[in-house]
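retry 2 of 3: previous attempt timed out while embedding NAP. Reduced batch size to 1 and resubmitted. Inputs unchanged:
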Amino acid sequence: MTTIAVLGNGRVGGNLAAALTRAGHEVTVADRTPGAAADAARTARIVINATPGNGSLDRLAALRDELRDKILVDVSNATTDGPDGLPADLLHPGSSLAEQLQEALPETHVVKTLNTMLFPVMTAPATLTQTPTVFLSGEDPEAKQTVRALLTDLGWQQEWITDLGGIRTARATEAAILFVPHVIRSSGFTPFAISITR
Ligand SMILES: NC(=O)c1ccc[n+]([C@@H]2O[C@H](COP(=O)([O-])OP(=O)(O)OC[C@H]3O[C@@H](n4cnc5c(N)ncnc54)[C@H](OP(=O)(O)O)[C@@H]3O)[C@@H](O)[C@H]2O)c1
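retry 2 succeeded.
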């Protein structure tokens, strides 16, 4: 059992919080109420960022004390949106939100994961008809091992988890968001994960 704070109570945050609670973890969900994120982060071992990516850097940098020595699991995508509300472009071209977060929070272990799929897949990967992939990016091997265990709790088999390496590799998975509006326009919101097949 791990104490987990989920920041954001939308599609992603609500779904992850429910699944992690079912898996036996002690989960606190923070909405945008002032002070809620700080309170939740302070008492948790792992903090999951499931808030909009375009404000995440400022929001999380403000929690530097609360996030010290913690694992920050970042599942967000930082984009500018098009007129139809779908992601249109990267907010941090030539970098990534995860790298920016790691730089702003040097005493926190940032791990990027789960950002390359529609939210229902995060907690039900076995429902896809083909073998899905989930990626890990981060500097700290122990933190990635801890997140790997959480992914297992969410239904991810070990061989479906691909550790890409350091936090810089998150710029690859964050760039995969550029597929998403086109996939949604062509195939709707049928759940999918961007995956490596061999
Ligand atoms: N949806 C997906 O399939 C998917 C897949 C992969 C990654 N992601 C990423 O996951 C993140 C969340 O996506 P989502 O689809 O769950 O979005 P969402 O349904 O719009 O939920 C976002 C949540 O964040 C909350 N929020 C906004 N500003 C906040 C603040 N300042 N402090 C605390 N909470 C705040 C919102 O609160 P209010 O309801 O009060 O606005 C809402 O509960 C995004 O970064 C997205 O790119 C989404």
